[in-house]
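Input structure tokens:
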């Protein structure tokens, strides 16, 4: 299955406002079919720091806002602990529609396919262009791949600065949902997320 991609659905004016309105009509891949709505990024239009997750989850799909569920709770706590003001952060996702499969009455999150990530990338690129952040950070493997390609890996490349055309400062860290899944290692996983965010904060002017 090939996804047509989002390019033809992007508005000619690429302000955040125009992009946010336009994404609701995107049919660049099939994910719009089973989702409630597209979830665009949120935050100050000129935020110095952009954080990119994977896809909206169940709560985000219903609310229409990114990171309002459990992973968002961890992320906000980690940002505060790293001394990063939430007003300095623009939060978004690599893929804008929730991908899920039913499990009983629950909607179980599914990782998007590479084709879906590629299809959705024009929205992310337009968002990066509109916000123009000083620093951009991928949260987890999907965002890492979408932003930096296959050569960058979270475990290998976290805690250092990456070369990227997207922003002066570019880095990767784990996804906050990995903290939730870490079981006995949860405290360590959380501390490592905070450390990575502190590292980015220090690198910023
Ligand atoms: N996980 C993500 O990657 N993004 C969200 O918006 C919520 C959970
Ligand atoms: Fe368009 Fe992205 Fe939604 Fe696919 S996931 S329909 S490319 S906005």
């Amino acid at each position: 299955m090939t996804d047509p991609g989002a390019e033809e659905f992007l508005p000619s004016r690429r302000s955040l406002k125009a992009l946010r309105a336009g994404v609701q009509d995107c049919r660049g891949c099939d994910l719009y079919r089973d989702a409630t709505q597209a979830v665009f990024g949120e935050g100050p239009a000129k935020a110095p720091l952009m954080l990119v997750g994977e896809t909206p989850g169940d709560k985000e799909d219903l609310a229409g806002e990114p990171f309002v569920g459990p992973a968002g709770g961890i992320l906000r706590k980690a940002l505060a602990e790293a001394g990063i003001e939430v007003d300095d952060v623009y939060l978004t996702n690599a893929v804008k529609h929730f991908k899920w499969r039913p499990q009983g009455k629950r909607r179980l999150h599914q990782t998007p396919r590479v084709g879906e990530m590629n299809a959705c990338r024009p929205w992310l690129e337009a968002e990066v262009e509109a916000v123009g952040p000083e620093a951009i950070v991928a949260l987890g493997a999907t965002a890492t791949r979408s932003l930096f390609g296959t050569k960058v890996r979270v475990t290998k490349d976290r805690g250092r600065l990456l070369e990227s055309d997207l922003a002066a400062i570019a880095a990767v860290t784990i996804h906050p949902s990995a903290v939730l899944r870490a079981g006995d290692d949860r405290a360590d996983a959380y501390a490592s997320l905070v450390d990575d965010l502190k590292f980015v904060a220090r690198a910023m002017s």
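Strands lie at 49-53, 89-93, 100-103, 106-109, 135-139, 169-173. The CA atoms of residues 63 and 81 lie 26 Å apart.
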